[in-house]
């Protein structure tokens, strides 16, 4: 029971997908919620207090999706820029809703202290279908590379390019869900023609730091703020979280740029990727949103105090 065929209905075990398999996978994806109703309407409600701009548009046969960024209204060229991204994986709901909640309830607290740039839903096609990949069966969060094949990733990189050299923080909001193990990792194994090897989903919040710029005190400050809202994920029996060694409570490290991860797209001194566990019996959806908000606040507060 450790082959892709045992877990995923698309493709032939041991053979990477071609165009027919990708088309078969795409045909399985259905709209389950509304980007316009759940995200764009909330962005529109912020227009009186913040500057909202469209920085791109996804163009798929199934439809077009405008991409929006929210900025501090009183942008000050003398201040550092703080980037918050959510919904790089569209199915990770609290990343999107947490980013929007942060803007609505807390962004004004940072007026005159920094410039905020928030891209709350990088992958709206995936948001509507509760899907990790985009319509081409590509993972946007492995596609932040030059000449990216993912529209979502390319658009975000173009948004931040003019501001390189000015970023102090980039915090990218994510979730680790039970569906990672039941759907998305089996799909990945099937797509790439590899065997599926079951893993363990951590129960709680954790962070992924950049192994080339880990900033451990910053990561600990973010987790300390989140711990006021929800629980931090413990290490498994091997001292790991999702297969990576735990370097501090609730912290693992990845080589962000080498993997094409979103948190690598700026030259910010402080970067991190949040991971909330929405399927925990010990956390509600509201707590998951609040955990993302707390993480953003913890990141900004630490960075402003340690510029």
What does this 3D model show about the protein?
The protein is an alpha/beta fold and 307 residues long. The chain has one domain: Zn peptidases (Aminopeptidase). The protein has nine helices and ten strands. The protein has helices at 4-7, 19-27, 35-44, 93-106, 124-129, 151-160, 178-192, 216-226, 285-305; strands spanning 51-60, 63-71, 81-86, 115-119, 167-175, 206-210, 240-241, 244-245, 251-254, 270-276. The strands form two sheets. The chain has an eight-stranded mixed beta sheet, with helices on both faces. Strands 7-8 form a two-stranded antiparallel ribbon. Strand 3 (81-86), helix 4 (93-106) and strand 4 form a beta-alpha-beta unit. It is globular, with a radius of gyration of 19 Å. Residues 31-307 form the Peptidase M14 domain. This is Peptidase. GO terms for molecular function: metallocarboxypeptidase activity; zinc ion binding.
